Amino acid sequence: MAVGARSGHGEPEKRPGGPDGSPRGDASDEAMSQAAVGPAGPEHDEVTSGEEPGRPAGRGANSMVPKKQRSFWKELPILVGIALVLALIIKTFLVQAFSIPSESMQNTLQRGDRVLVDKLTPWFGSKPERGEVVVFHDPGGWLGETPQQDNGPIAGGLQKVLSFIGLMPSAEEKDLIKRVIATGGDTVECKGNNDPVVVNGKPLNEPYIFPGNTPCGDKPFGPIKVPKGRIWVMGDHRQDSLDSRYHQELDKYQGTVSEDEVVGRAIVVAWPLNRWSTLPVPDTFSQPGLSAAAAAAPPALGLAGAVPLVLWRRRRIAGKAAQKG
């Protein structure tokens, strides 16, 4: 018997194909191959989020389709609108730019300077302090009737838009900028000649005064008691500033300005760039004893601290008396 020969009575020889003898490539074989390797067609790396075969693709399939970006020209009006809203909010509540129209604050400020004015802190109850440079509305009669310049329809319209969002000063608003010398409750005076301005009995050392000027120029004043809620203001160029000294006869407030008229404190010279600088409070306004309120503070604090101590002592004495009784 040749090696490897088969008898005709053993197991039937397995035919090529599936385990049941079906030929390769029949329907069941094709179904099994599709279940193993997926549907026929090009291969994909896409994650299908577990959808069953044969069902429409869900969110996972659609999320891979890139969204068409909006055209720049369609987005531009939206960006401009957002920028205008933000600029209006900043102008109304935070910071506003003002232009210096005169020489009344030289040499601290020059004509044509642009200053940024802090409008935020007044919303939190901040009041003008001595030594600050502040912008305020005309209290009435300080600027008089100033003729408005006709810049033409284009330039005039542009200025209105820019002033509306705070990038330019308004041609219609009448604002002034001066330095606060005294606040509500202070007594301020200047006797003239070369005598200094005196606040609450303390003479001021004013190095910011325009060179060659005297502290009150040719307009001595006082003593004046500044009413509560008002301020006494003066320009640094004393010989060229129509400030509180020159408006004492306008009303009963003797040239003082209401705190409600104050727009905010000028904090920075922003333009031109070669003049960029901050506007700090001079050291002379920090001298001891200048503030009338500060002088009264120690006795007031002492009294406030003594009251609870006396009450506690009386309760202790009464408690001991009740225990003995």
Give a nutshell description of this structure.
With 325 residues, the protein is of the alpha+beta class.
Question: What is the strand tally?
Answer: 12
Shape, per Cα inertia axes: flat
Alpha carbon gap, first and last residue = 135 Å
Question: What fraction strand?
Answer: 15-25%
Helix content: 25-40%
Structural category is: alpha+beta
Order of helices and strands, N to C? Answer: HHHEEEHEEEEEEEEEH
Tell me about the largest β-sheet: 8 strands, antiparallel
Radius of gyration: 42 Å
| Average of per-residue pLDDT values | 74
Number of helices: 5
Low-confidence stretches: 1-19, 21-52, 145-150, 293-301
Overview of the structural elements:
There is one protein chain. By secondary structure, this protein is α+β, with helices and mostly antiparallel strands. Strands 1, 2, 3, 4, 9, 10, 11 and 12 form an 8-stranded antiparallel β-sheet that branches. A 4-stranded antiparallel β-sheet has the order 7-6-5-8, with no helix packed on it. The protein contains 5 helices and 12 strands. 26% of the residues lie in helices and 17% in strands. A hairpin with a 2-residue loop joins strand 6 and strand 7 (202-203).
SSE blueprint:
Layout: H1 27-37, H2 59-63, H3 72-94, E1 95-99, E2 114-118, E3 133-137, H4 152-164, E4 175-183, E5 187-190, E6 198-199, E7 202-203, E8 221-225, E9 230-234, E10 257-258, E11 262-271, E12 277-278, H5 292-324
Antiparallel strand pairs: 1-2, 2-11, 3-4, 3-11, 4-9, 5-6, 5-8, 6-7, 9-10, 11-12
